[in-house]
Amino acid sequence: MNVKRKVANKKWIICLNDVKNQIDNKEVTNLNNIIRKHNTGTGLATMLITGGIVYKNNLGVYKWNKDVAVNNKLIELYRSFQKIDREINRKNKINNNQPKIQFNMPQTPLPPKPKTRIRKKIIDQSVNTPTQQNELGVIRRFLKWLW
User: Fold this and answer.
1) Which of 1, 23, 35, 64 has the least C-beta neighbours within 10 A?
2) Phi, psi for 36 (deg, rounded to 5)
């Protein structure tokens, strides 16, 4: 095992021992508060509940399953739980990001549209019309007046 894995295993074992001791000695109604103290993630509480390691009695107090001991097998169970949970979340994320498209298409295909060609008409307009040539601008009129 690599160093990071050993450190994580040790951290989870300490957390699980603390959870087991508090469940056995106190009336615990919320596992997440205990697990958050150890910074191991609340997925550990989910795994304990869904795996049947911890269960609630009639009063809503958590009890530890006497058949399960805190050991490395429990940690490996948690790792496999995390892997499955990550895969499910990844698939859900992929499916939720894609929009659901529904087409209201007719059963029979539509006939193709005929191709129409549009030609642009170019209108020739001369720049200097006879009326424009007779009209003088203000400056030219002023110069004409001066001379």
Assistant:
1) 1
2) -65, -30
Q: Which residues pair with 75 in a beta bridge?
A: none
The Cα 48–Cα 57 span in angstroms is: 15
CB of 81 closer than 8 Å to CB of 43: yes
CA distances to 33, 44, 60, 122 from 29, in Å = 9, 16, 6, 85
Give the tens place of pLDDT for each residue, 39-74: 888 788 888 888 888 888 888 888 888 888 888 888
Token digits of residue 31 = 């596992």
Residue with tokens 């040539």: 133
- Whole-structure pTM over 0.85, yes or no? no
